[in-house]
Amino acid sequence: MQRADEIHRTAHPLDLFTIPSIPTSIHYVPNFLTPAQESHLLAKIHSKPWVQLSRRRLQVYPAQLTANNVLLSKDKLPDWLLEPMKQFFDDLDVFDLRTENKDGVANSRGARDGKVEMNHVLVNNYRPGEGIMPHEDGDAYYPITATVSLGGHTVLDLTAKSPTASSMTDSGDDGESKRWRILQEPRSLLVTRGSAYDETLHGIAEAEVDESLGRETVANWEMLGDRDAFESGVAQRAERTSLTCRSVKKVSKLGGRLLGGR
User: Fold this and answer.
1) Which of 86, 98, 99, 175 has its CA 20 to 30 A from that of 192?
2) What's the start-to-end Cα distance of the chain, in Å?
3) Which residue ranges in the chain fall short of pLDDT 50?
4) Which residues of 161-198 are buried (b: 16+ CB within 10 A; e: fewer)?
5) Is the dihedral of CA 203, 207, 212, 213 positive or negative?
């Protein structure tokens, strides 16, 4: 990953990692973590209990949301999960909600100073052949999702909710919603923000092998950290663990008042 002093020379640190020819505000950072950091996180994760779902295993930190989308917990995210990701997220301003309008004036989307805290992490474990149906993350969270991949790669299928979505400028010629593929390498970071968060669905096909991988089919092909590993166009999936990091809008400590409610 680039040094912090290089990152902060741009208008927004994530601008350096924006995926071209795809909806705005989707960013890919290869080699976000080192192999040693990846191994440390995986060892910690696999020492904790899993919840078995139909197509994947799951851990939730610090707690599941309530039926009213409130994070109700006396606990914070564990230190082993925060380090070193939180510092890297801060260097990249990942959880900065400020955007610029056509006049170059900064806008804020719901946070008092334009920034929010990462306070919720889903840990998903996928074995080869497992995936997840196309979905959106929804209004319980501020419009930022940061996903770190550990152990294995995957291909994320991204679909515009409708051909007329405001940021989906290159909709399909047949009027169908535009689709893209994003290859997520081990130790990489994928950030979805703003309009891309609001106007797209994302999912992972239930496949043991990813095929037709290349410059014409993978939106972030030129940004991959190790293109040679996928040059054949075919890649066997391995077990992959993903960290889906977000900021819940409504937070309440047990016995305390509701924070961040609207």
Assistant:
1) 175
2) 36
3) 3-9, 100-106, 169, 171, 261-262
4) eeeebebbeeeeeeeebbebbbbbbbbbbbbbbbbbbb
5) positive
